[in-house]
Amino acid sequence: xxxxxxxxxxxxxxxxxxxxxxxxxxxxxxxxxxxxxxxxxxxxxxxxxxxxxxxxxxxxxxxxxxxxxxxxxxxxxxxxxxxxxxxxxxxxxxxxxxxxxxxxxxxxxxxxxxxxxxxxxxxxxxxxxxxxxxxxx
Length: 137
Known about the structure:
This protein is α+β, with helices and mostly antiparallel strands. The protein is 30% helix and 24% strand. Helix 1 (9-17) packs parallel to helix 5 (115-128).
């Protein structure tokens, strides 16, 4: 697993700020003493069971979601009253980037060369603008 398979640390922090549930298989572990961060494949809850509280006390853990985890939490469509704007995810071959959008609502959507980051940017936008249903947050 490499960092391209998960949301960046900066966006993971922002996801946590907007209320993204801190549950997943991949985590950013930030050492509070050295400020070193690293993504781990381990499940955080299993780590809690196998490491002493003293060992874990030096780490701040933030979920590092993969694209499918975020897409499961994005609404399939956003109700605009008369019609619904459906989620669209595609790869822009000319820019070698991924785009996540609701075409009838947003002009450009969110692009990134990392699909996880593009999905995270859309989730953050929807959360900040009250466009996520309670059960998807």
